[in-house]
Amino acid sequence: FGFMSALEDKLENRSELFYNQVSPQNSIMVNPYESMFSQLSQHDILLSYPYNKFKNFLRLLDEAADDPYVSSIKITLYRVARNSEIVSTLIRAAENGKQVMALVELRARFDEENNIGWSKKMEEAGVKIIYGLDALKVHSKLLLITRKQGSNIRYYTQIGTGNYNEKTSRLYTDLTLMTSDKDIGADASTVFNALSLGTTVESSTTLLVAPKCLKSRIVEMIDNEITYGTKGYIGP
User: Fold this and answer.
1) Tens digit of each residue's pLDDT (9 = 90 or more) over 10-28
2) With contact defined as beta carbons under 8 Å apart, do 52 and 28 qualify?
3) Which residues, other chains included, contact 178 with Cβ-Cβ below 8 Å and sequence gap of 6+?
4) Which of 121, 131, 209, 223 allows an S-S link to 201, with CB 3.0 to 4.6 Å?
5) How many domains is the chain partitioned into structurally?
6) Which SUPFAM superfamilies does this entry report, sorted A to Z (predicted)?
7) First to last CA, the chain
């Protein structure tokens, strides 16, 4: 991807070498004129890349960085862009006094140097960096924002299949879910607590977290589908 991206930049003035540009569209689930926190308090948002704009996710993170009611932002980073707007926003959040924690996977093949460089910049800004776990590679894409709402604490969670990378989101097919569901938020909080302690998640309610909660739950779900037989979802 790095080679193709560099080639695209070099040939940006040679329009005859490119197909017609197709741009991501705004999702009908997102109101561009309303706060992301306000929208997520009312309903979940599911985005499909590259068809929907990655900027909708960036809006959520951007709002969190400046929102006086946000106390913490926690995120897992696997591959980020060379000039990452996401990391720059995390740095701004830390400079604004938020508690920011980022797990950076240093074993992301071909991106080790980039990840190390960004980690140093984040640490200098006050971001708490966790450099992965010894026995496991953290490949999940998870964001947890903790925000005070009235007298209550509310979680805003993002779960995705794609990296937090503005450039690759224009190319790769991925899904991202943004939600204020309290059970999902509680599970995400459990994940980040385990990561900060260097341990694994022992049990969860909504999220299937490897290595201890994923396989058994999937097998259980498959067995449940089998019980439906030909009257259910499986069968001719």
Assistant:
1) 898 888 898 888 889 999 9
2) no
3) 36, 40, 44, 45, 46, 47, 57, 60, 156, 157, 158
4) 209
5) 1
6) Phospholipase D/nuclease
7) 42
Q: Is 221 contained in some domain?
A: no
In this structure, the number of other CB atoms found within 10 A of the CB of residue 118 comes to 25
What residues make up the domain containing 154? Answer: 24-201
Host H or E run for residue 112: helix 112-125
What integer pLDDT is reported at residue 177 of this predicted model? 98
Distance CA 171, CA 8 (A): 13
In a domain, 219, yes or no: no
pTM: 0.88
In this structure, is residue 214 part of a structural domain? Answer: no
- pLDDT of 78 higher than 90: no
Residue 52 lies in a domain: yes
The residues assigned a catalytic role are 139
